[in-house]
């Protein structure tokens, strides 16, 4: 079989894995930030507690993107399939 005529789907899969997780992470952090501003406007005295919880949740949300990026790059370089 000629290798020039075969279609390699691995770059598409890696791009979708990294792209979809980036979009999801951006949307999640944007919604989280909007709720932080809304909660700070409603309860200014709770701003410090809300801000610490925001950074914790943003780190967890961003962690999923970083893990997906690592797995995608591992697939792209090691090609386990």
Automatic annotation (TrEMBL):
Organism phylogeny: Bacteria, Pseudomonadati, Pseudomonadota, Betaproteobacteria, Burkholderiales
Membrane topology term: Multi-pass membrane protein
Keyword Cell membrane: yes
Bilayer-crossing regions: 12-33, 54-76
Subcellular location: Cell membrane
Key words of the record: ATP synthesis, Cell membrane, CF(0), Hydrogen ion transport, Ion transport, Lipid-binding, Membrane, Transmembrane, Transmembrane helix, Transport
Biological processes, Gene Ontology terms: proton motive force-driven ATP synthesis
Domain V-ATPase proteolipid subunit C-like residue range list: 12-74
Principal cellular location given in the protein's record: membrane
GO-annotated cellular components: plasma membrane; proton-transporting ATP synthase complex; proton-transporting two-sector ATPase complex, proton-transporting domain
UniProt xrefs under Pfam families: ATP-synt_C
Leader peptide range in chain numbering: none
Name of the featured protein: ATP synthase F(0) sector subunit c
Organism: Pseudacidovorax intermedius
GO molecular function: lipid binding; proton transmembrane transporter activity
Family (UniProt): Belongs to the ATPase C chain family.
